[in-house]
Design a protein that fits this description.
Blueprint (H helix, E strand, L loop, with lengths): L1 H19 L15 H8 L4 H5 L2 E14 L2 E8 L2 E8 H4 L1 H5 L9 E10 L5 E12 L15 H6 L1 H7 L1 H23 L3 E2 L5 E2 L10 E5 L4 E5 L4 H9 L4 E9 L11 E10 L3 H20 L3 E4 L2 E4 L6 E3 H7 L6 H9 L4 H9 L10 H12 L8 E4 L21 E6 L2 E8 L4 H16 L10 H9 L4 E7 H9 L21 H6 L12
Parallel strand pairs: 3-5, 6-10, 14-15
Antiparallel strand pairs: 1-2, 1-4, 2-3, 4-5, 7-9, 8-9, 10-11, 11-18, 12-13, 15-16, 16-17, 17-18
Helix pairs in contact: 7-8, 8-10, 8-17, 9-16
Protein backbone atom coordinates (compact mmCIF):
# COMPACT_ATOMS: atom_id res chain seq x y z
CA UNK A 1 0.00 0.00 0.00
CA UNK A 2 2.80 2.43 0.91
CA UNK A 3 4.55 1.66 -2.37
CA UNK A 4 1.37 2.44 -4.31
CA UNK A 5 0.81 5.70 -2.47
CA UNK A 6 4.41 6.71 -3.10
CA UNK A 7 4.00 6.01 -6.83
CA UNK A 8 0.82 8.07 -6.94
CA UNK A 9 2.50 10.97 -5.13
CA UNK A 10 5.45 10.82 -7.53
CA UNK A 11 3.14 10.96 -10.54
CA UNK A 12 1.36 14.00 -9.12
CA UNK A 13 4.74 15.65 -8.48
CA UNK A 14 5.65 15.11 -12.14
CA UNK A 15 2.31 16.60 -13.17
CA UNK A 16 3.04 19.73 -11.14
CA UNK A 17 6.51 20.03 -12.67
CA UNK A 18 5.14 19.71 -16.20
CA UNK A 19 2.68 22.52 -15.48
CA UNK A 20 5.39 24.68 -13.91
CA UNK A 21 7.35 24.33 -17.14
CA UNK A 22 4.36 25.59 -19.11
CA UNK A 23 3.41 22.24 -20.62
CA UNK A 24 -0.29 21.89 -21.48
CA UNK A 25 -0.75 18.50 -19.87
CA UNK A 26 -4.36 17.97 -20.96
CA UNK A 27 -4.65 19.50 -24.46
CA UNK A 28 -7.89 19.19 -26.41
CA UNK A 29 -6.66 17.19 -29.40
CA UNK A 30 -3.76 15.85 -31.42
CA UNK A 31 -3.85 15.67 -35.25
CA UNK A 32 -3.26 12.02 -36.18
CA UNK A 33 -2.07 10.91 -39.58
CA UNK A 34 -3.13 7.31 -38.78
CA UNK A 35 -3.81 4.92 -35.94
CA UNK A 36 -0.98 2.67 -34.79
CA UNK A 37 -2.65 -0.32 -36.38
CA UNK A 38 -2.96 1.49 -39.70
CA UNK A 39 0.74 2.43 -39.64
CA UNK A 40 1.72 -1.18 -38.97
CA UNK A 41 -0.60 -2.53 -41.66
CA UNK A 42 0.56 -0.01 -44.28
CA UNK A 43 4.28 -0.03 -43.58
CA UNK A 44 5.13 -3.16 -41.61
CA UNK A 45 6.62 -4.89 -44.64
CA UNK A 46 7.91 -1.78 -46.46
CA UNK A 47 11.60 -1.58 -47.51
CA UNK A 48 13.92 0.61 -45.46
CA UNK A 49 14.26 3.27 -48.12
CA UNK A 50 10.53 3.78 -48.26
CA UNK A 51 10.26 3.97 -44.47
CA UNK A 52 12.77 6.81 -44.25
CA UNK A 53 10.55 8.89 -46.54
CA UNK A 54 7.39 8.21 -44.49
CA UNK A 55 6.40 10.82 -41.92
CA UNK A 56 3.70 9.95 -39.39
CA UNK A 57 1.86 11.59 -36.51
CA UNK A 58 0.61 8.98 -34.04
CA UNK A 59 -0.56 8.90 -30.44
CA UNK A 60 -1.32 6.44 -27.69
CA UNK A 61 -0.70 5.32 -24.15
CA UNK A 62 2.92 4.81 -23.10
CA UNK A 63 3.57 1.12 -22.63
CA UNK A 64 7.11 0.49 -21.34
CA UNK A 65 9.87 3.12 -21.32
CA UNK A 66 13.56 2.24 -21.52
CA UNK A 67 15.98 5.14 -21.17
CA UNK A 68 19.60 4.82 -22.26
CA UNK A 69 21.32 8.14 -21.54
CA UNK A 70 20.69 10.39 -24.51
CA UNK A 71 18.31 7.95 -26.22
CA UNK A 72 15.03 6.40 -25.07
CA UNK A 73 12.90 3.60 -26.47
CA UNK A 74 9.21 3.33 -25.58
CA UNK A 75 6.06 1.79 -26.96
CA UNK A 76 2.74 3.44 -27.68
CA UNK A 77 -0.49 1.47 -27.58
CA UNK A 78 -3.96 2.41 -28.82
CA UNK A 79 -7.06 0.40 -29.55
CA UNK A 80 -5.63 -0.81 -32.85
CA UNK A 81 -2.11 -1.90 -31.98
CA UNK A 82 1.30 -1.25 -30.43
CA UNK A 83 4.22 0.61 -32.04
CA UNK A 84 7.74 1.41 -30.86
CA UNK A 85 9.05 4.97 -30.70
CA UNK A 86 12.70 6.12 -30.48
CA UNK A 87 13.63 9.44 -28.89
CA UNK A 88 17.10 11.00 -29.20
CA UNK A 89 18.27 14.17 -27.51
CA UNK A 90 20.14 15.36 -30.62
CA UNK A 91 16.96 15.00 -32.73
CA UNK A 92 14.34 16.36 -30.32
CA UNK A 93 16.52 18.97 -28.68
CA UNK A 94 17.75 18.98 -25.10
CA UNK A 95 14.76 20.76 -23.42
CA UNK A 96 12.15 18.51 -25.05
CA UNK A 97 14.20 15.40 -24.38
CA UNK A 98 14.64 16.40 -20.73
CA UNK A 99 10.85 16.32 -20.29
CA UNK A 100 10.87 12.57 -21.00
CA UNK A 101 11.96 12.01 -17.38
CA UNK A 102 8.48 13.24 -16.42
CA UNK A 103 6.78 10.60 -18.55
CA UNK A 104 5.31 7.50 -16.86
CA UNK A 105 3.95 4.26 -18.16
CA UNK A 106 0.27 4.88 -18.81
CA UNK A 107 0.62 8.53 -19.88
CA UNK A 108 -0.76 9.55 -23.27
CA UNK A 109 1.61 11.21 -25.73
CA UNK A 110 1.56 12.13 -29.39
CA UNK A 111 4.67 11.97 -31.55
CA UNK A 112 5.69 13.12 -35.03
CA UNK A 113 8.59 11.67 -36.95
CA UNK A 114 9.74 9.28 -39.64
CA UNK A 115 9.66 5.52 -39.70
CA UNK A 116 12.64 3.19 -39.63
CA UNK A 117 13.42 -0.37 -38.70
CA UNK A 118 15.71 -1.25 -35.77
CA UNK A 119 18.52 -3.80 -35.95
CA UNK A 120 16.09 -6.38 -34.57
CA UNK A 121 13.66 -5.60 -37.41
CA UNK A 122 11.02 -3.76 -35.36
CA UNK A 123 9.06 -0.96 -37.04
CA UNK A 124 9.76 2.25 -35.11
CA UNK A 125 9.06 6.00 -35.21
CA UNK A 126 12.14 8.22 -34.90
CA UNK A 127 10.58 11.02 -32.88
CA UNK A 128 11.19 14.61 -33.98
CA UNK A 129 8.47 16.23 -31.85
CA UNK A 130 6.50 14.95 -28.87
CA UNK A 131 3.31 16.36 -27.40
CA UNK A 132 2.16 15.43 -23.91
CA UNK A 133 -1.57 14.58 -24.00
CA UNK A 134 -2.67 13.29 -20.57
CA UNK A 135 -1.13 12.18 -17.27
CA UNK A 136 -1.99 8.82 -15.72
CA UNK A 137 -2.10 9.59 -12.00
CA UNK A 138 -2.48 5.93 -11.05
CA UNK A 139 -0.05 3.18 -12.05
CA UNK A 140 -1.31 0.56 -14.49
CA UNK A 141 -1.41 -3.17 -13.71
CA UNK A 142 1.83 -4.97 -14.24
CA UNK A 143 1.98 -6.99 -17.46
CA UNK A 144 3.15 -10.13 -15.75
CA UNK A 145 0.75 -10.09 -12.80
CA UNK A 146 -2.21 -8.49 -14.54
CA UNK A 147 -5.43 -7.75 -12.71
CA UNK A 148 -6.65 -10.94 -11.07
CA UNK A 149 -9.22 -9.91 -8.45
CA UNK A 150 -12.56 -10.66 -10.13
CA UNK A 151 -14.61 -8.02 -8.28
CA UNK A 152 -12.06 -5.30 -9.01
CA UNK A 153 -12.00 -6.37 -12.66
CA UNK A 154 -15.77 -5.86 -12.95
CA UNK A 155 -15.84 -2.70 -10.84
CA UNK A 156 -12.97 -1.00 -12.67
CA UNK A 157 -13.43 -2.45 -16.13
CA UNK A 158 -11.31 0.23 -17.76
CA UNK A 159 -8.25 -1.18 -15.98
CA UNK A 160 -9.35 -4.74 -16.71
CA UNK A 161 -9.38 -3.90 -20.43
CA UNK A 162 -5.84 -2.55 -20.18
CA UNK A 163 -4.48 -5.45 -18.14
CA UNK A 164 -6.18 -8.39 -19.84
CA UNK A 165 -6.19 -8.27 -23.66
CA UNK A 166 -8.57 -11.24 -23.87
CA UNK A 167 -11.24 -9.12 -22.15
CA UNK A 168 -11.18 -6.51 -24.90
CA UNK A 169 -11.46 -9.33 -27.44
CA UNK A 170 -14.69 -10.54 -25.79
CA UNK A 171 -16.29 -7.16 -26.36
CA UNK A 172 -15.05 -6.94 -29.94
CA UNK A 173 -16.70 -10.30 -30.55
CA UNK A 174 -19.84 -9.12 -28.80
CA UNK A 175 -20.09 -6.25 -31.27
CA UNK A 176 -19.57 -8.66 -34.17
CA UNK A 177 -22.32 -10.95 -32.83
CA UNK A 178 -24.80 -8.09 -32.56
CA UNK A 179 -23.89 -6.89 -36.07
CA UNK A 180 -24.39 -10.40 -37.46
CA UNK A 181 -27.83 -10.71 -35.83
CA UNK A 182 -28.87 -7.35 -37.27
CA UNK A 183 -27.68 -8.28 -40.73
CA UNK A 184 -29.36 -11.68 -40.56
CA UNK A 185 -32.74 -10.24 -39.65
CA UNK A 186 -32.55 -7.34 -42.10
CA UNK A 187 -31.65 -9.78 -44.88
CA UNK A 188 -34.90 -11.59 -44.05
CA UNK A 189 -36.98 -8.45 -44.36
CA UNK A 190 -37.19 -7.38 -40.70
CA UNK A 191 -37.34 -3.69 -39.82
CA UNK A 192 -35.45 -2.43 -36.76
CA UNK A 193 -37.61 -0.27 -34.47
CA UNK A 194 -37.36 1.33 -31.03
CA UNK A 195 -40.02 1.18 -28.34
CA UNK A 196 -40.28 2.93 -24.94
CA UNK A 197 -37.83 2.04 -22.18
CA UNK A 198 -40.05 3.76 -19.60
CA UNK A 199 -43.58 2.38 -19.52
CA UNK A 200 -46.72 3.09 -17.57
CA UNK A 201 -47.37 -0.65 -17.27
CA UNK A 202 -44.55 -3.18 -16.95
CA UNK A 203 -45.87 -5.82 -19.34
CA UNK A 204 -44.63 -8.45 -21.73
CA UNK A 205 -42.93 -10.78 -19.24
CA UNK A 206 -43.41 -12.31 -15.81
CA UNK A 207 -40.91 -10.24 -13.86
CA UNK A 208 -40.67 -7.67 -11.08
CA UNK A 209 -39.97 -4.21 -12.54
CA UNK A 210 -37.90 -1.28 -11.40
CA UNK A 211 -40.16 1.64 -10.52
CA UNK A 212 -39.46 5.33 -11.12
CA UNK A 213 -41.45 8.58 -11.29
CA UNK A 214 -41.83 11.30 -13.91
CA UNK A 215 -41.82 14.58 -12.01
CA UNK A 216 -43.22 16.92 -14.69
CA UNK A 217 -46.17 14.62 -15.45
CA UNK A 218 -46.44 13.43 -11.83
CA UNK A 219 -46.90 9.84 -12.89
CA UNK A 220 -45.33 6.52 -11.89
CA UNK A 221 -43.32 4.71 -14.55
CA UNK A 222 -41.45 1.43 -14.83
CA UNK A 223 -38.27 0.48 -16.62
CA UNK A 224 -39.44 -2.04 -19.15
CA UNK A 225 -39.20 -5.76 -18.48
CA UNK A 226 -39.80 -6.51 -22.19
CA UNK A 227 -40.69 -4.64 -25.41
CA UNK A 228 -43.19 -7.32 -26.44
CA UNK A 229 -46.52 -5.52 -26.19
CA UNK A 230 -45.28 -2.49 -28.14
CA UNK A 231 -43.72 -4.63 -30.85
CA UNK A 232 -46.99 -6.49 -31.33
CA UNK A 233 -48.74 -3.14 -31.71
CA UNK A 234 -46.37 -2.59 -34.66
CA UNK A 235 -47.83 -5.76 -36.22
CA UNK A 236 -51.29 -4.29 -35.75
CA UNK A 237 -50.08 -1.18 -37.57
CA UNK A 238 -48.94 -3.13 -40.61
CA UNK A 239 -45.22 -3.52 -39.88
CA UNK A 240 -45.22 -7.26 -40.51
CA UNK A 241 -41.63 -8.05 -39.53
CA UNK A 242 -40.01 -6.01 -36.78
CA UNK A 243 -37.17 -6.40 -34.31
CA UNK A 244 -35.59 -4.47 -31.48
CA UNK A 245 -32.16 -4.79 -29.88
CA UNK A 246 -32.09 -3.02 -26.56
CA UNK A 247 -32.01 -3.17 -22.80
CA UNK A 248 -34.52 -4.81 -20.47
CA UNK A 249 -34.61 -4.34 -16.70
CA UNK A 250 -35.84 -6.91 -14.20
CA UNK A 251 -35.72 -6.47 -10.45
CA UNK A 252 -34.37 -9.91 -9.72
CA UNK A 253 -31.34 -11.66 -8.25
CA UNK A 254 -27.88 -11.79 -9.73
CA UNK A 255 -26.19 -15.01 -10.82
CA UNK A 256 -23.75 -16.26 -13.44
CA UNK A 257 -26.67 -16.16 -15.91
CA UNK A 258 -28.66 -13.16 -14.62
CA UNK A 259 -28.00 -9.43 -14.48
CA UNK A 260 -30.84 -7.01 -13.64
CA UNK A 261 -29.99 -4.96 -16.76
CA UNK A 262 -29.53 -7.11 -19.83
CA UNK A 263 -29.69 -6.97 -23.61
CA UNK A 264 -32.45 -8.72 -25.52
CA UNK A 265 -33.19 -9.17 -29.19
CA UNK A 266 -36.94 -9.50 -29.81
CA UNK A 267 -38.42 -10.03 -33.26
CA UNK A 268 -41.95 -10.64 -34.55
CA UNK A 269 -43.15 -12.10 -37.83
CA UNK A 270 -46.73 -11.85 -39.07
CA UNK A 271 -48.44 -14.92 -40.58
CA UNK A 272 -45.98 -17.25 -38.85
CA UNK A 273 -46.22 -19.63 -35.89
CA UNK A 274 -43.63 -20.95 -33.47
CA UNK A 275 -42.63 -23.73 -35.86
CA UNK A 276 -41.55 -21.11 -38.41
CA UNK A 277 -39.40 -19.38 -35.79
CA UNK A 278 -37.75 -22.66 -34.82
CA UNK A 279 -36.62 -23.01 -38.41
CA UNK A 280 -35.49 -19.39 -38.53
CA UNK A 281 -33.51 -19.82 -35.29
CA UNK A 282 -31.81 -22.98 -36.57
CA UNK A 283 -30.64 -21.00 -39.59
CA UNK A 284 -29.80 -17.72 -37.86
CA UNK A 285 -27.63 -18.88 -34.94
CA UNK A 286 -25.06 -20.91 -36.91
CA UNK A 287 -24.97 -18.10 -39.46
CA UNK A 288 -24.14 -15.62 -36.68
CA UNK A 289 -21.52 -17.93 -35.18
CA UNK A 290 -19.75 -18.40 -38.51
CA UNK A 291 -19.73 -14.68 -39.18
CA UNK A 292 -18.71 -13.56 -35.68
CA UNK A 293 -16.38 -16.33 -34.48
CA UNK A 294 -15.64 -18.20 -37.73
CA UNK A 295 -17.34 -21.49 -36.87
CA UNK A 296 -20.66 -22.99 -35.79
CA UNK A 297 -18.71 -25.65 -33.88
CA UNK A 298 -17.75 -24.07 -30.56
CA UNK A 299 -16.28 -25.10 -27.23
CA UNK A 300 -18.02 -23.87 -24.11
CA UNK A 301 -16.43 -24.53 -20.72
CA UNK A 302 -14.69 -27.62 -22.01
CA UNK A 303 -17.70 -29.05 -23.88
CA UNK A 304 -17.93 -29.26 -27.67
CA UNK A 305 -21.20 -27.84 -29.04
CA UNK A 306 -22.30 -27.70 -32.66
CA UNK A 307 -24.75 -24.89 -33.39
CA UNK A 308 -25.49 -26.17 -36.89
CA UNK A 309 -29.13 -27.31 -37.10
CA UNK A 310 -31.49 -28.96 -37.08
CA UNK A 311 -32.00 -29.09 -33.30
CA UNK A 312 -33.99 -31.79 -31.48
CA UNK A 313 -37.53 -30.86 -30.40
CA UNK A 314 -38.66 -32.24 -27.04
CA UNK A 315 -42.05 -31.47 -25.45
CA UNK A 316 -41.91 -29.91 -21.98
CA UNK A 317 -43.73 -32.77 -20.24
CA UNK A 318 -41.69 -35.38 -22.10
CA UNK A 319 -38.46 -33.65 -21.02
CA UNK A 320 -39.55 -33.82 -17.39
CA UNK A 321 -40.34 -37.52 -17.78
CA UNK A 322 -37.23 -38.52 -19.76
CA UNK A 323 -34.56 -36.16 -18.46
CA UNK A 324 -35.99 -35.00 -15.14
CA UNK A 325 -36.83 -38.39 -13.68
CA UNK A 326 -40.55 -37.64 -13.44
CA UNK A 327 -41.93 -40.64 -15.30
CA UNK A 328 -45.23 -40.14 -13.47
CA UNK A 329 -45.59 -36.47 -14.54
CA UNK A 330 -48.88 -36.98 -16.43
CA UNK A 331 -50.43 -38.61 -13.38
CA UNK A 332 -49.19 -35.83 -11.11
CA UNK A 333 -50.74 -33.25 -13.43
CA UNK A 334 -54.03 -35.15 -13.67
CA UNK A 335 -54.35 -35.37 -9.88
CA UNK A 336 -53.43 -31.69 -9.49
CA UNK A 337 -56.09 -30.72 -12.03
CA UNK A 338 -58.59 -32.83 -10.10
CA UNK A 339 -57.90 -30.73 -7.01
CA UNK A 340 -55.22 -32.84 -5.32
CA UNK A 341 -51.83 -31.12 -5.86
CA UNK A 342 -50.33 -32.60 -2.70
CA UNK A 343 -48.23 -35.25 -4.42
CA UNK A 344 -46.79 -32.76 -6.91
CA UNK A 345 -45.99 -30.30 -4.14
CA UNK A 346 -44.28 -33.09 -2.20
CA UNK A 347 -42.03 -33.76 -5.19
CA UNK A 348 -41.22 -30.05 -5.30
CA UNK A 349 -40.54 -29.98 -1.57
CA UNK A 350 -37.94 -32.71 -1.96
CA UNK A 351 -36.14 -30.37 -4.36
CA UNK A 352 -36.27 -27.54 -1.81
CA UNK A 353 -39.05 -25.72 -3.69
CA UNK A 354 -41.64 -23.97 -1.52
CA UNK A 355 -44.93 -23.66 -3.42
CA UNK A 356 -47.08 -20.58 -2.66
CA UNK A 357 -50.84 -21.09 -2.75
CA UNK A 358 -51.24 -19.16 -6.00
CA UNK A 359 -48.97 -21.58 -7.89
CA UNK A 360 -50.72 -24.02 -10.18
CA UNK A 361 -49.25 -27.24 -11.52
CA UNK A 362 -47.68 -25.41 -14.45
CA UNK A 363 -45.61 -23.12 -12.24
CA UNK A 364 -44.52 -26.02 -10.02
CA UNK A 365 -43.43 -28.02 -13.05
CA UNK A 366 -41.58 -24.96 -14.36
CA UNK A 367 -39.53 -24.85 -11.16
CA UNK A 368 -38.89 -28.60 -11.31
CA UNK A 369 -37.79 -28.23 -14.94
CA UNK A 370 -35.13 -25.69 -13.89
CA UNK A 371 -33.83 -28.02 -11.16
CA UNK A 372 -33.96 -31.35 -12.97
CA UNK A 373 -33.81 -30.82 -16.72
CA UNK A 374 -31.89 -27.71 -17.76
CA UNK A 375 -28.45 -29.04 -16.86
CA UNK A 376 -28.93 -31.98 -19.25
CA UNK A 377 -29.63 -29.73 -22.26
CA UNK A 378 -26.06 -29.23 -23.47
CA UNK A 379 -26.50 -29.64 -27.23
CA UNK A 380 -28.92 -27.09 -28.77
CA UNK A 381 -32.44 -28.35 -27.97
CA UNK A 382 -35.92 -26.89 -28.45
CA UNK A 383 -38.23 -27.53 -25.50
CA UNK A 384 -41.79 -27.09 -26.77
CA UNK A 385 -45.42 -26.91 -25.63
CA UNK A 386 -45.27 -25.31 -22.19
CA UNK A 387 -48.08 -25.12 -19.60
CA UNK A 388 -50.48 -22.26 -20.22
CA UNK A 389 -49.89 -20.91 -16.71
CA UNK A 390 -46.31 -20.02 -17.68
CA UNK A 391 -47.31 -18.21 -20.88
CA UNK A 392 -50.14 -15.67 -20.50
CA UNK A 393 -49.42 -14.07 -23.90
CA UNK A 394 -49.11 -17.26 -25.99
CA UNK A 395 -51.67 -19.03 -28.14
CA UNK A 396 -53.13 -22.30 -26.86
CA UNK A 397 -51.98 -25.58 -28.33
CA UNK A 398 -54.42 -26.92 -30.88
CA UNK A 399 -53.77 -30.45 -29.54
CA UNK A 400 -53.92 -29.84 -25.77
CA UNK A 401 -55.68 -26.77 -24.31
CA UNK A 402 -53.61 -27.07 -21.11
CA UNK A 403 -50.53 -26.10 -23.11
CA UNK A 404 -49.41 -23.28 -25.40
CA UNK A 405 -47.54 -23.05 -28.71
CA UNK A 406 -44.18 -22.09 -27.26
CA UNK A 407 -40.56 -23.14 -27.39
CA UNK A 408 -37.42 -22.33 -25.47
CA UNK A 409 -33.98 -23.02 -26.93
CA UNK A 410 -31.42 -24.41 -24.49
CA UNK A 411 -27.69 -24.61 -25.11
CA UNK A 412 -25.08 -25.62 -22.50
CA UNK A 413 -27.81 -25.80 -19.87
CA UNK A 414 -28.89 -22.19 -20.47
CA UNK A 415 -32.08 -20.80 -21.92
CA UNK A 416 -30.91 -18.76 -24.91
CA UNK A 417 -34.19 -18.07 -26.72
CA UNK A 418 -37.91 -18.03 -25.93
CA UNK A 419 -40.68 -17.84 -28.54
CA UNK A 420 -44.35 -18.55 -29.11
CA UNK A 421 -47.28 -18.17 -31.42
CA UNK A 422 -48.81 -14.91 -30.27
CA UNK A 423 -52.28 -14.77 -28.76
CA UNK A 424 -54.27 -12.38 -30.94
CA UNK A 425 -57.81 -13.00 -29.60
CA UNK A 426 -58.58 -9.86 -27.52
CA UNK A 427 -61.27 -11.55 -25.45
CA UNK A 428 -59.03 -14.42 -24.41
CA UNK A 429 -56.14 -12.03 -23.79
CA UNK A 430 -58.35 -9.97 -21.48
CA UNK A 431 -59.30 -13.11 -19.59
CA UNK A 432 -55.61 -14.02 -19.26
CA UNK A 433 -54.83 -10.54 -17.88
CA UNK A 434 -57.69 -10.87 -15.40
CA UNK A 435 -56.24 -14.15 -14.21
CA UNK A 436 -52.87 -12.40 -13.79
CA UNK A 437 -54.56 -9.74 -11.65
CA UNK A 438 -56.06 -12.46 -9.45
CA UNK A 439 -52.63 -14.02 -9.07
CA UNK A 440 -51.14 -10.66 -8.14
CA UNK A 441 -53.81 -10.31 -5.49
CA UNK A 442 -52.73 -13.70 -4.18
CA UNK A 443 -49.14 -12.54 -3.78
CA UNK A 444 -47.53 -13.13 -7.19
CA UNK A 445 -45.27 -10.09 -7.62
CA UNK A 446 -44.30 -11.19 -11.14
CA UNK A 447 -47.86 -11.38 -12.46
CA UNK A 448 -48.66 -8.96 -15.27
CA UNK A 449 -51.04 -6.01 -15.06
CA UNK A 450 -54.04 -5.24 -17.25
CA UNK A 451 -52.89 -3.30 -20.32
CA UNK A 452 -55.91 -1.61 -21.88
CA UNK A 453 -53.80 0.08 -24.61
CA UNK A 454 -52.58 -3.31 -25.80
CA UNK A 455 -56.07 -4.82 -25.67
CA UNK A 456 -57.43 -1.89 -27.69
CA UNK A 457 -54.73 -2.56 -30.28
CA UNK A 458 -55.73 -6.23 -30.46
CA UNK A 459 -59.32 -5.17 -31.02
CA UNK A 460 -58.16 -3.23 -34.08
CA UNK A 461 -56.92 -6.61 -35.29
CA UNK A 462 -53.54 -8.33 -35.18
CA UNK A 463 -52.61 -10.95 -37.79
CA UNK A 464 -51.50 -14.40 -36.71
CA UNK A 465 -47.87 -14.01 -35.72
CA UNK A 466 -44.98 -15.47 -33.79
CA UNK A 467 -42.41 -13.64 -31.68
CA UNK A 468 -39.06 -14.56 -30.20
CA UNK A 469 -36.58 -13.19 -27.71
CA UNK A 470 -32.88 -14.08 -27.79
CA UNK A 471 -30.74 -13.25 -24.77
CA UNK A 472 -27.75 -11.43 -26.25
CA UNK A 473 -25.62 -11.72 -23.12
CA UNK A 474 -26.05 -15.48 -22.91
CA UNK A 475 -25.42 -15.90 -26.63
CA UNK A 476 -22.21 -13.91 -26.25
CA UNK A 477 -21.25 -16.10 -23.28
CA UNK A 478 -21.57 -19.15 -25.52
CA UNK A 479 -19.67 -17.69 -28.45
CA UNK A 480 -16.80 -16.33 -26.31
CA UNK A 481 -16.57 -19.26 -23.87
CA UNK A 482 -17.35 -16.97 -20.91
CA UNK A 483 -18.43 -18.62 -17.67
CA UNK A 484 -20.37 -15.67 -16.23
CA UNK A 485 -22.73 -13.07 -17.65
CA UNK A 486 -20.60 -10.45 -15.91
CA UNK A 487 -17.74 -11.37 -18.24
CA UNK A 488 -19.72 -10.19 -21.28
CA UNK A 489 -21.28 -7.01 -19.84
CA UNK A 490 -18.85 -4.12 -19.78
CA UNK A 491 -20.13 -2.64 -16.53
CA UNK A 492 -22.28 -5.18 -14.66
CA UNK A 493 -24.32 -4.15 -11.63
CA UNK A 494 -22.36 -4.59 -8.39
CA UNK A 495 -22.96 -3.95 -4.73
CA UNK A 496 -21.43 -0.73 -3.36
CA UNK A 497 -17.84 -1.10 -2.30
CA UNK A 498 -17.62 -2.42 1.23
CA UNK A 499 -15.35 0.26 2.68
CA UNK A 500 -14.19 3.72 1.76
CA UNK A 501 -10.68 2.32 1.40
CA UNK A 502 -11.70 -0.43 -1.00
CA UNK A 503 -10.56 1.54 -4.03
CA UNK A 504 -7.03 1.83 -2.69
CA UNK A 505 -7.05 -1.78 -1.55
CA UNK A 506 -7.87 -2.78 -5.11
CA UNK A 507 -5.30 -0.46 -6.56
CA UNK A 508 -2.64 -1.98 -4.35
CA UNK A 509 -2.87 -5.08 -6.51
CA UNK A 510 -1.61 -3.16 -9.55
CA UNK A 511 2.18 -2.97 -9.09
CA UNK A 512 4.15 -0.65 -11.31
CA UNK A 513 6.15 -2.75 -13.73
CA UNK A 514 8.86 -2.19 -16.27
CA UNK A 515 7.33 -4.52 -18.84
CA UNK A 516 4.68 -3.66 -21.39
CA UNK A 517 1.06 -3.71 -20.24
CA UNK A 518 -1.28 -6.05 -22.03
CA UNK A 519 -3.62 -3.31 -23.17
Amino acid sequence: MESLNEQARERRRKLRELREQGVSVYPSSFPLSATLGQVIAAHGAAPEGELERTAVAVAGRLDAIRGMGKATFAHLRDGSGRLQIYCRQDVMGEPAYRDLRLWDRGDFVGVEGRLFRTKTGELTVRVERATFLAKALRPLPDKWHGLADVEIRYRQREVDLLANPEVAEVFRRRSAIVDALRQGLKARGFLEVETPMMQGIAGGAAARPFATHHNALDMPLFLRVAPELYLKRCLVGGLDRVFELNRNFRNEGISTQHNPEFTMLEFYQAYADYHVLMELTEALLPEVARQAVASAAITYQGRSIDLAGPYPRVAFLDALARLGGLAEVEGLVARAEAGDPGELKAVAAREGIACPEFWGWGKILGELFERRVEEHLVAPTFITDFPLELSPLAKRSEKDPRLVQRFELYVAGMEVANAYSELNDPAEQRARFEEQIRRRGGGDEEAQAMDEDFLRALEVGMPPAAGEGIGIDRLVMLLTDSASIRDVILFPLLRPERTAAAEDVGSAQWPEGGGAAGA
